[in-house]
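Hey, I'm writing a tutorial for new members on how sequence and structure tokens pair up, and I'd like a real worked example in the thread rather than a made-up one. If someone can provide the structure for the chain below, I'll link this post from the tutorial.
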Amino acid sequence: MKGITNNAGLALKEALDAESIPPDRCVRFVGSVHGGELQIDRRFPDDQVFKYGGRTVLAVGPETAGSCRRHTLDYEGDHFNLVTGAPRAEERLTQVVHCGHM
């Protein structure tokens, strides 16, 4: 996965905090560019992870990360979307919040 927008990072962090999810857990994207789901899970050593506000908010397994390598997770209105191309102007500087392998 290319990255997450600031809006997506904020929405994920707020959801984790609102549900009092422990810091060793995060949201996992499971699926492909054709559809998927978000679920609470733990991080695995080969995950691609994204941080926001000092917390790991999203984990993506290697197979999913590869199939979504040109996509960015965005949040708009009340739902998440995988988008390609340039992010909206207000997201441009925060497109990739953090990406790394654990």
